[in-house]
Amino acid sequence: MSTSSRYYIADYKSNHLGDKFSDYSESAMAQAINSHRYNLQYILYTLALHRYLRLRLPGYDYQQHLGGCYYLFLRGMSPEHPGSGVFFDKPPQALIEQLDSLFNGDATHAVMETPTC
User: Fold this and answer.
1) What are 66's strand-pairing partners?
2) Residue 104 exposed, middle or buried by CB count within 10 Å (0-12, 13-18, 19+)
3) What is the pLDDT of residue 62?
4) Catalytic residue (one of 11, 23, 89, 100)
5) Pairing between β-strand 66-73 and β-strand 7-13 as defined by DSSP bridges
6) What average pLDDT does the structure give for the chain?
7) What is the torsional sign of CA 36, 45, 97, 29?
């Protein structure tokens, strides 16, 4: 692996958000991502990639090497409409590190909210 490379997650979705390219706007895709909990999915994918790169890539740095997540809504993509159907996010490094600590059983470093009644 090259230390100058960036690594990305790509997930293809076939969700039908509408018949027009405008139905695949950033806000429409964000709504679909939230309603289907794809945001949780790509956070877990990011955690897995972070852990893998930390083990395998000498000098790994989250900001430098982890590029982020692309969700590609196939029905909204077209060469005539660049960017349509393409959703991108990069979870904050602090979130991924907190989840890493939590999954390692180190709850003292993980920020956890306690529900109040």
Assistant:
1) 7
2) exposed
3) 98
4) 11
5) parallel
6) 90
7) negative
